[in-house]
Design brief:
Number of strands: 5
Strand order of the largest sheet: 1-2-3-4-5
Strand content: 5-15%
Radius of gyration: 19 Å
GO molecular function: GTPase activator activity
Number of domains: 1
Number of helices: 8
Low-confidence stretches: 212-225
Shape: globular
Protein name: Ran GTPase-activating protein 1
Pfam families: LRR_6
Order of helices and strands: EHEHEHEHEHHHH
Largest sheet: 5 strands, parallel
Organism: Phaeomonas parva
């Protein structure tokens, strides 16, 4: 049967595994109208998720909602997430809950989201239970403030009390820390390791670059204005 008109596909808790994910990707390739895809807790694993993402990179241009939570993804998989989804014009909601992407994954996502023209429609990024500590959370707070995300749920992570206070200060003009949602399962007693390479990379990053991001149309307008300014008649 044809699925050309299929707009919503919910496969939550359906166990695909890597091989099944490949079959799913081939099937959804025939669904150009797909807007909503939920594969939460489907055991896609990294290889299967990456096959699905590869398919989405050239199909389902109207995709608005994607939930990849609970599929054993690691930080390296975030590079594929970014590469395959960054130019999706309608993607508003992206969930990666319960994947061990850690601070490195947050760092990669944050840089992508604040790059002009990338993830242009994104309003919600859910990263609950992703092994994120204070360094990743404060970086995400800066991303939220710079980009103006409406929601970035972070419950179930390891954000210290001091980290939460810093996040609250950073988000004061961007809707407050409520943008992180309820934090009932956050572990405030977690202590970061001083020699953690991912944390060191985040702390060494020039955060002023995050404020340089602008909507794609604004960037294009600026380029046009510059070109016109250099034009002589």
């Amino acid at each position: 049967a044809s699925c050309e008109a299929l707009e919503v596909a919910n496969f939550e808790d359906v166990t695909f595994g890597g091989d099944g994910a490949a079959v799913l990707a081939r099937s959804l390739e025939k669904c150009p109208s797909l807007r909503h895809l939920n594969v939460r807790d489907s055991m896609l694993e990294e290889e299967g998720a990456e096959e699905l993402l590869e398919m989405l990179s050239t199909n389902a241009e109207g995709l608005e909602f994607l939930d990849l939570s609970g599929n054993d993804l690691m930080a390296d998989s975030v590079e594929k997430v970014v590469a395959c989804l960054k130019e999706k014009p309608a993607l508003k909601y992206l969930a990666l809950d319960d994947n061990e992407i850690g601070n490195k994954g947050v760092f990669l996502l944050g840089q992508a989201i604040t790059t002009p023209g990338q993830f242009p429609a994104l309003t919600t990024l859910s990263l609950k239970g992703c092994d994120v500590s204070a360094a990743g959370a404060t970086f995400l707070a800066r991303v939220v403030a710079a980009r103006g995300l409406e929601s970035a749920p972070l419950d179930g992570n390891f954000i210290s009390e001091a980290g939460l206070e810093e996040c609250a200060a950073l988000l004061e003009s961007a809707g407050g820390i409520d943008v992180f949602g309820p934090l009932e399962d956050n572990d405030e007693d977690f202590e970061e390791e001083e020699d953690d390479e991912d944390i060191a990379e985040i702390k060494a990053f020039d955060v002023s670059k995050l404020g340089a991001a602008a909507p794609a149309e604004d960037a294009a307008a600026d380029d046009l204005a510059d070109a016109l300014a250099k034009t002589t008649i």
